[in-house]
Structures are given as C-alpha cells and as structure tokens.
Design a protein that fits this description.
heterodimer; A: 331 residues; alpha/beta; B: 462 residues; 4-stranded mixed β-sheet; 63% helix; elongated
C-alpha cells in the first residue's frame, strides 16, 4: 500500500516507496488490473487482469469476438475502459488519453494513405513519433523488409503483402519499447510471414516487448514466451506454453495406423478423436492406461506411430472455444 | 501540438498537391467572372414581343391620350438605342399596343370575364380598367384605387409601372385643361429636381475640408460583399472536403493506424488545421490577385486594408467552426449517402448569412443586423460585410464577434472531438442525430475513469 503525504511541503525527490513501485511496473511492460469494457449492453472485456514482462513476446489468442482487439485498443488508449473499472499501465504510464510514442501499433484493419509514396508515409509516421535520422532509419527498415526498391512507389502500387510490410515498418520505425500487433501475419504469404517473424524476433532481442494477437496457433507456439487466451471477454489461459500444457497434462495420444479408416472412438478411455489425414489425435480420460490403448490399437492393425504427448495449443484452443460453437449451432 | 502540426502539414500537402486543387483554384474566379460576363451579356436580352393590353376607359376621355403616349413610347424608347437614346431600326424593348375595350352597352362583368379569358388564352398581355370617377378622385387622398391592372403574370412589371405613370399624367393634363391653366406653367411648377448621392466630407490633417472620394464607398461595399462571398465559397471549399477526407480514412481503415500514434483530438485538429491552412492559402492567392488587379486599374490606394486583417481572422475562425462540424459528420457516417444527409443541415447553417445580406446591407447598424451578426455561424460573413459598408461599425462589435466565433470554434472542436473519437472506428450503421448528441455530450457507453478513481484502483492493485 502506498501512502501519500498531506503536508504542504514540495518534495521534488520521489519517495523510495514510489520509486520501488515504478521499478516494479517497469519490469512489466504491460500491467492490466480488473479492466472491463462494455459497448452498450455487450461486455467486450470482462474483469481482465494480466501482465506482460519486458523483453518478451506475448501472444493473444482466442476466437473471433473474444475481446482481443478491444484489449489491444485499450492498451493503445484508442478505447477507454469503463469508469472505475481497473487500471491499464503501459510502460509505466497510466494516462488514459495519450498513447506513448515508445509504443508501436499495427492494427488489424490495415490502411495507409494510398496516394502517398512509401518513403513519405514512413517519414510522416517517423515525424509523428519524434524519430531522429528519419531517412536513415527508413532506408534500413525498407532494406530489412525487402522493400528497398519500393521507397518511391505510391502505396496504391504495392501488393497487399508489401503494403502490410510497410505498415509493419510504420509501427516499428522508432524502435518502440512496446510493440502491439493485431493479427500481424494475416494475409501474408509464408515468405513474407517469415520476414515479419524474423523482424519481430530481432526487435525482441534488441529490447522491445511484443504483444500480438493471432489465430495462427502453430506460430504462437513457436514464437511466444507467454500466451494469453481470451474467451467471451474473459481471460481463460495465461502462462508459458509449457505451463499451459502442464495444466492440461499428457492426455493426448498421437497415432498413425496402416488402416487409416479404422474406427478409434470406441477404444478404452478415448474422449475425442481428431482426424488429420494420416495422423490422428486421441484425447483420453484422466488416468487412462496407455498400454491398454496401444494393445487395443494393435488388435486393429499395424501401428506405425504411437506418441504420448501434451495437447497442442490448437487443441487447447478448440477445447475451450468449441463448446461455444456448439451452443451457437444449437441456438 | 507537434503531432497535430505534423498531421496538419500532411493534410495541407495532400490537399494542395493535387490537380483538382489547382483546377478549383482557377475555376472559382473563372466561374465568378463568367457569371458577371453572362449577366452583362444577357441583361438586355428581353422578350421584345408586343405587349397588347386592353383598356376599359370608363371615364371616356383618357384612352386617346394613353394611346398617344404608348405610340410615343414605342417610337422613343422601344425603338431607341439603349445607350444613346437615338431612334433606331432595331427594337430593344417590347412595344405597347393599347386596344380600347368600350364598356358602352355591355354588362361590365361580362366584359371583364371576356377580357380575362383573352388574357388566359394569350391574346392579351393584360387589361386595365379605369374607374369612372378617376377624374374626380384625388382632391384629397381618399386611399382608394381608381385604376386596376389585371394579368396572369404579376412578375412582369414594366408595363404596369409605365401605365401607372402615364395614366396619372393624362389625368393631370385633363385637369389642367379643365382648370384653364397654361400647360407650360404647370410643367414648370411641377417639375421635379434631381438629387445626386455623394459621400461624406472629410477634414484633412491640414484642416481643409474636402468632399469624400465618390467611388471609395462603392469599392468598400464591393470589397465587403466580395470578401463575405469569398468567405462563403472558401468555407465550402475548405470545410466540406473534411467530411470526405475523414470518411475516406474511415472507409480505407487508415484512421486506426494514426490513432495508435495520436489521440483522436490531435488527429481531428490536425486535419482541421490543415484545411485552415489550405483555406488561408486560397484566400491569400485571391486577395493578392485582387490587389494586383486593383493596382493595375489605378485603385491600389483605395483598397480597404483594415478589412483584410479582419477577414483573415474571421476566415480562420469560420473554418475551425465549420471544419469541426464537417469532420464530425465524416467520423459519424459510414458512407457518402449518410454523410450527404447530415451535411445538408450543416450547409444550411453556413448559408444563413446569405439569407440576410440584403437587410444587413440596407440597415447595417439596425438592431436586427447587430444581433444577427453576433450569431456565431453568421458572424464572420456578416461582420465583414458590415465593416465594408460606409456606415461605421463600433469597434467593440467585431472584437466581440471574433471572440464569440473563437469561443464557438473551441466548443465545436471539443464536441466534434467526442463524436470523432467514438465514430471514427465505428463500422456498420451510421449514427443518427440523437446518437450524435449523445456522443457529443457523454461519449459512447461508459466514460473514462475519473483520476481519483484511477488512483484508488492503482492503490488497490499495488
């Protein structure tokens, strides 16, 4: 608890308690406590609390309409949380009206001034961010993203992937301390996705904290230090991939059989079978006996692959989000 | 402020680095000049078809004189050169053909109905009925009418005005004859004097009193009216594009990128200031061009410089006021159709000064003129108009007017900023007026936490 003095003296030195608290906040690039956001009668974000450690990559996952974009927009001060509903602290600032210049933002909805030249777009955003050596930084970023020849082209002449990379540069041009990306890989081909992913990792290495939302579980598993899953406006998962998987236990068996059409749903302890063509994943009841499952499988034919593993992020996502889809179908 | 200026500079550059800007810069004076030329060219383009009018002369003595007057008119005016007044072969005005419709032996109402039908059928332009007691009337003004002009085209005034004058001349001549007076004596006694209009006298620094320069009045009036109209045009050119600009950014989804860097208010203010710059750029070009033209014509020393300073201030205030309004409309709408529906009432507000230009010019310091020129949306144009007129406006009025305009601009920008903040990211259905008012007063949904509550939340969180 922090106490404040009511004495009418002016002390220009921060108190040790305040300094310690700020230092604590600074270790977390993002600090959200009990934040709620409603639009009319719709609760978009419900009592959300989370923190993102500095110099990490945090992935926001969740089905459409789960509150990811609203949360990111609140971090950017584009939306304000409901009155009295918690605090949002970004890079130690809790001013609700001004996004700090040291935060870069790539929104989900892409949009650049189409008639401007690429170099002018970058110069414009760099000036807004108070960036020094604009020309040099812009040139380096363009070359880094494989857009060296596009500097003098108008935005409207770029392909979608190129425009998206230009927009990525506008978010990162001032080497932000915090980079917030809403679906940065959507619409990118694998080559361009690799370029963006590589740039994100370089930024992380140079000290930038990255928060990004995605539907790409495969990338999130590999890229994120921490993962937050939102569902119906609430946080339902928060932690490292390993800790999340640990919570779910090794309840998954991955198998490949000679007979790809063999029915597996009646095996002992099987709750659900997920088909991936050659490969199938069996979700098992707690306390199942792997040996009995293997024996039962061998009775049905030749077993080429048998692996006891934790559920993938995709699987965990589906387990949480699927009931909603089921409910919606039934509604 | 730095970010606002960066956006303003981009907006300015985006607006002026287009071919349409250069074209519109030329089109405005060209269209204005074309309108003047057209007005000059077509001002004498009148229908010269004869005006055939039936006259029911119930006095029985006036028609002959009226017919003679019409004949004289046709000879000296309809066929006269409009500039020199010399007889001409070319007809410049319609001739008047008077036909007597005698009421003798007829029911007067039948005759009136027949003539009315002939007017409706297009055989006659009109018919006139002169009351039988017209010659006796007028010894004392009894307030009654004795001559009646019937037509189905009340907008045509030339013949009724001419006839009214001539019938009075004829009655006067008849009365003179009846009184046995000499016509020359009566002409001399009733001859009217001409009055010329001149400006006020001015006392120079050397104490000498001189007559004011006659054309200076008109130059000031023309400057005031011209600047007021220029202001209206520049409001349209400078403010309305803000709606389209904001709407375009909203539709292209580029607004959110900026909102990640600047606040909604900075974003909107940057756009508005950019357009203020564009507007002032336009008026500077026109004013400089006007100076050059006036100097070339020898009127360089009569240019009302004091008006220009006020004009610049008012123009900036007007763009801030209307610009914020149009920017908010752009943010609140999702397509051009929605925007046009909301822009119509906003444009009507901008047109208010045009509706009252005439009464304000006639009585620039009347109570009505004074109060209407303190109505902020009308203040910039009307105050400039009044300041251009020869009747001096008390200095406190433009100062108070300007303060009101700036205050209104601040309120407009603040309210529009709230609408802008809510509307700029809103997709789907456009907002109605009720929702706009709600956004302007309360924002959307919950308001941001008050600082004391945020501090309390921060303490509990830590």
């Amino acid at each position: 608890m922090v106490t404040t003095s009511t004495a009418p003296t002016i002390n220009t030195q921060p108190s040790p308690a305040v300094t310690a608290r700020e230092a604590e906040y600074r270790r977390h690039a993002v600090e959200v406590r009990s934040v709620t956001k409603t639009f009319g009668s719709t609760v978009a974000v419900d009592d959300l609390s989370l923190s993102v450690a500095e110099r990490t990559i945090c992935g926001f996952i969740g089905p459409n309409g789960s509150g990811k974009t609203t949360t990111l927009r609140m971090l950017m001060r584009i939306y304000q949380p409901d009155e009295g509903a918690g605090i949002i602290r970004v890079l130690g600032h809790d001013d609700l009206h001004a996004p700090p210049d040291s935060v870069g933002y790539l929104p989900e909805e892409r949009g650049l001034y189409k008639r401007m030249k690429v170099i002018d777009v970058l110069r414009f955003y760099a000036e807004l961010k108070g960036c020094a050596d604009i020309a040099g930084v812009a040139r380096r970023w363009l070359e880094r993203m494989g857009l060296g020849d596009a500097a003098q082209k108008r935005v409207e002449a770029l392909s979608k992937g190129m425009a998206q990379k230009v927009q990525f540069i506008t978010a990162t041009i001032n080497q932000p301390q915090l980079l917030i990306l809403d679906e940065p890989f959507s619409g990118l081909d694998p080559v361009n996705a690799d370029v963006v992913r590589s740039a994100m990792l370089d930024l992380k290495r140079s000290g930038t904290t990255i928060v990004y939302s995605t539907h790409d579980m495969h990338t999130a598993e590999k890229l994120c230090d921490e993962i937050v899953m939102m569902h119906r406006g609430r946080k339902v998962l928060d932690g490292t991939l390993a800790s999340i998987q640990r919570d779910y236990g090794s309840d998954t068996i991955r198998v490949r059989l000679h007979d790809t059409d063999a029915v597996l749903s009646d095996l002992p302890g099987v709750v659900q079978v997920s088909e991936y063509g050659q490969l199938r994943e069996l979700r098992m009841t707690p306390g199942y006996q792997p040996r009995r499952v293997l024996e039962a499988l061998m009775e049905r034919g030749s077993v080429h692959h048998f692996e006891i593993c934790s559920p993938s992020l995709h699987d965990i996502f589906v387990r949480i989000a699927a009931p909603v889809s089921e409910e919606r179908r039934n509604a | 402020m730095r970010k606002t200026l960066v956006i303003a500079v981009r907006e300015f550059q985006a607006a002026v680095h287009t071919k349409t800007f250069a074209v519109s810069l030329l089109i405005m004076p060209l269209m204005g000049s074309a309108g003047l030329v057209a007005a000059l060219v077509f001002k004498d383009q009148v229908n010269v078809d004869d005006k055939t009018v039936a006259v029911i002369d119930r006095t029985g003595v006036l028609f002959a004189d009226l017919a003679a007057a019409a004949h004289e008119y046709n000879r000296t005016e309809a066929l006269a050169d409009p500039v020199t007044g010399d007889p001409s072969e070319t007809q410049h005005k319609p001739r008047f053909a008077l036909h007597e419709a005698s009421p003798a032996g007829r029911d007067i109402n039948d005759l009136r109905a027949e003539l009315s039908d002939r007017v409706r059928a297009g055989e006659l332009t009109a018919f006139v009925e002169i009351d039988p007691s017209a010659l006796r009337a007028g010894e004392e003004d009894d307030g009654l009418e004795y001559v009646f002009y019937h037509s189905n085209n009340p907008m045509y005034r030339e013949f009724p005005i001419w006839f009214n004058r001539r019938v009075n001349d004829c009655v006067r001549d008849w009365r003179v004859r009846q009184a046995g007076l000499a016509a020359e004596t009566v002409d001399w006694a009733t001859r009217r004097l001409r009055m010329g209009e001149r400006p006020l006298y001015v006392r120079g620094r050397d104490g000498v009193v001189n007559a004011g320069r006659e054309h200076e009045h008109y130059i000031n009036i023309a400057a005031g009216v011209g600047l007021a109209l220029l202001m209206f045009l520049v409001i349209l050119v400078g403010a309305i594009p803000l709606t389209y600009s904001v709407l375009e950014e909203k539709m292209q989804r580029s607004a959110e990128v900026l909102l990640g860097t600047v606040t909604a208010f900075q974003f909107m203010m940057g756009k508005i200031l950019g357009m203020v710059g564009v507007s002032l750029g336009i008026v500077t070009i026109y004013i400089v061009a006007g100076f050059i033209a006036a100097s070339a014509c020898g009127y360089g020393n009569t240019i009302p410089h004091h008006l220009i300073n006020w004009f610049i201030l008012y123009q900036a205030g007007a763009i801030l006021m209307f610009g914020s309004l149009y920017a908010a409309i752009g943010a609140a709408c999702n397509d051009m159709k929605d925007a046009q529906n909301l822009m119509a009432p906003a444009s009507l507000i901008a047109c208010v000064p045009l509706f009252v230009i005439r009464p304000v010019m006639l009585e620039p310091n009347s109570t009505f003129s004074t109060w209407i020129s303190f109505f902020p949306p009308a203040t910039p144009m009307l105050m400039i108009l009044r300041q251009g007129l020869p009747t001096p406006v008390p200095i406190w009025q433009p100062i108070v007017g300007l303060m009101l305009v700036l205050l209104t601009a601040v309120v407009c920008v603040a309210l529009a900023g709230r609408i802008f903040r809510v509307g700029i990211l809103m997709q789907g259905k456009g907002a109605n007026v009720k929702e706009l008012l709600q956004w302007a007063t309360h924002g959307m949904g919950q308001r941001p936490p008050r600082p004391d509550r945020r501090r309390a939340a921060a303490r509990s969180a830590s």
